[in-house]
Design a protein that fits this description.
Distance between the termini of chain A: 49 Å
Number of helices of chain A: 15
Order of helices and strands of chain A: EHEHEHEHEEEHEHEHEHHHHHHHH
Oligomer: homodimer
Helix content of chain A: 40-55%
Largest interface: A-B, 45 and 45 residues
Largest sheet of chain A: 8 strands, mixed
Strand order of the largest sheet of chain A: 3-2-1-4-5-8-9-10
Strand content of chain A: 5-15%
Chain lengths: 335, 335
Amino acid sequence: MQKKNEVHKIAVIGGGSWATALVKILSEGNSKINWWLKDKEDVTYIRDYGRNPNYLTDVTLNLKKVRPTQFLNKAIEESTIIIFVVPAAFIGDVIERIPKGLLDNKIIVSAVKGMIPQDNLLVTDLVQKIHKVPSKNITVIAGPCHAEEVALEKRSYLTIAGESIQNATIVSELLTCRYVKASIVEDLYGVEYSAVMKNVIAIACGIARGLNYGDNFQAVMVSNAMQEIRRFVDAMNHKDRDWNSSAYLGDLLVTSYSPYSRNRTLGNMIGRGYSVKSAQVEMNMIAEGYYAVKCIHEINKQLKVSMPITKAVYNILYEKISPSVELRILEDSMN
Amino acid sequence: MQKKNEVHKIAVIGGGSWATALVKILSEGNSKINWWLKDKEDVTYIRDYGRNPNYLTDVTLNLKKVRPTQFLNKAIEESTIIIFVVPAAFIGDVIERIPKGLLDNKIIVSAVKGMIPQDNLLVTDLVQKIHKVPSKNITVIAGPCHAEEVALEKRSYLTIAGESIQNATIVSELLTCRYVKASIVEDLYGVEYSAVMKNVIAIACGIARGLNYGDNFQAVMVSNAMQEIRRFVDAMNHKDRDWNSSAYLGDLLVTSYSPYSRNRTLGNMIGRGYSVKSAQVEMNMIAEGYYAVKCIHEINKQLKVSMPITKAVYNILYEKISPSVELRILEDSMN
């Protein structure tokens, strides 16, 4: 479908911090980037100043390679690789707006680290369902990677997951640059589910921190979380996986331990006594884990996997059970 | 050998912060603790004030249960459970001083998280070699647990490893209290080697931090480290292990991520340009990883397991190769 070393035309769909970081990484190479942002003002601002006015505002972009646009279909039409990087809460609308056939014969990449609320679907699933994209044409970009450190050009690593090694290789080559190394793993679903679940765990870690639990507790919680993720993903899609590789463990660590993690920050505020609503208003950013925990909780009604940490976060966020009560229950269940 | 629920007489051999934390935990129960410290002055101070003058100085101990002594043989003689918790660099001398036969029919517990320099032996090995203690009488206390958080009575978890579930259970019951939960794992060697190696990794994490690498990089380093530990331990002693449990992953996390970790602090100072010598003088504490990396490096001359992180730390600490050069090599080897 794609040839190596050719100049790729890439659509980046989304205007948040991770989208901005990906545009920065991609523009280190020779690609042409059609960057779709929802708001016309932002498009105009970026055209005028070469910077995103809202996220990673210090990052200067090369406008010879990066073309911002508010026209979604045009951005997709003119590209062969389409990277979706919109918060999960809005991605459903975006994908539904795209005319049938427009995604045919393109490489579809999801950099969304969440699930579609209500539908409880991964982006990968939704694209297959609505646009009949064959799964071999889909890849997923996973971490461990905070956008903020990409902005600073700190050494980072990405994992590209996909059923087609050929397509994953194309995407990984586009995302490899001076400060980013991208590797490949043949596990679309495992990587995508792990990326979703890590945000739930990060909320739990933040809550524990907010309640003044220490480093000893967090180490045990993250170890138990790895086992919880493993149980869930294996039940959804059994496969031989190296759970200690960066795509799974690394992604969990960067989210659970870094102050850059907005999910951890949300949890921290809730642990310190903020209501969920006021924490979200204060943060002014979307914590994917907030939606993800509901999706995972609902999927697990069928699977019935033991998921004490996910359950605790769900109860705190949706059932208004006191964080300290839930954490005391967790204390006893972990080891 | 021991009966459940009886009042145990326990010798704690060592006067550092981890020894003090263990004495505190043990004295929450009904045991009598014969606490051996090297220096007479410290023994006298603790008898007078109920506090260790050098470590965890805020912790007040119950002198009805805790009897400090400078007489090693007497402490051992009067106890049925002997916990060694002396820095690895000095534990060899202590164990050699003990008269033959004195450790017979006792439960021997190692809380030392290092290897005997020169000999490249685990404490477990040394006790077997010198005192012919059968391996079923030996258990190991592993983390994830920083002494400083035990002092604050923050919720913590311990892992007790041993070949005899019965003996491990006795030790785990003694160490379970209001703020500590102790679990059992039937893997003496794996837990002990992992506990040793985590300190080497923590030095690497500290060096990376000192050189201004970020959270993205550390997440990848810790994931790669888990794989490195797994390769080494499996080569030394093959066994089915859940590498994501607290005894292995948790112990690594608490050391790699916590500012309480003295190994991480040593690495951080080296990354920021301190010489190894001046960092050690400045810290005034022993970083076990400094000795451990040499032992592991030497053992691995035979095993020839791929250990890029351990090799980098060894080269920086013992071959005086520049930290930034070694980290650049690591950057490329990891994914």
